[in-house]
Specification:
By secondary structure, this protein is an alpha+beta fold. Helix content is about 55%, strand content about 15%. It has helices at about 5-25, 45-50, and strands at about 35, 40-45. Strand 1 (about 35) and strand 2 (about 40-45) form a beta hairpin. The longest helix is centred in the N-terminal third of the chain and has 21 residues, at about 5-25. The two termini are about 25 Å apart.
Length: about 50
């Protein structure tokens, strides 16, 4: 891999900040919406945000 670690960390953190800002601007998000996975069971949107 020929990627510069520091550059990639900065890009990741910038995208993460943009995602957090976007999620805070959502109006009445349905974080309890779920999907049942055959091997893992029920997973909600909130589950993925918490992890």
């Amino acid at each position: 891999m020929e990627q510069d670690y520091n550059t990639m960390v900065k890009k990741f953190l910038a995208e993460r900040e943009a995602s957090i800002t976007w999620s805070k601007e959502l109006k009445n998000p349905k974080w309890d919406n779920s999907y049942r996975l055959p091997k893992l069971g029920k997973r909600t949107a909130k589950h993925y945000l918490d992890n």
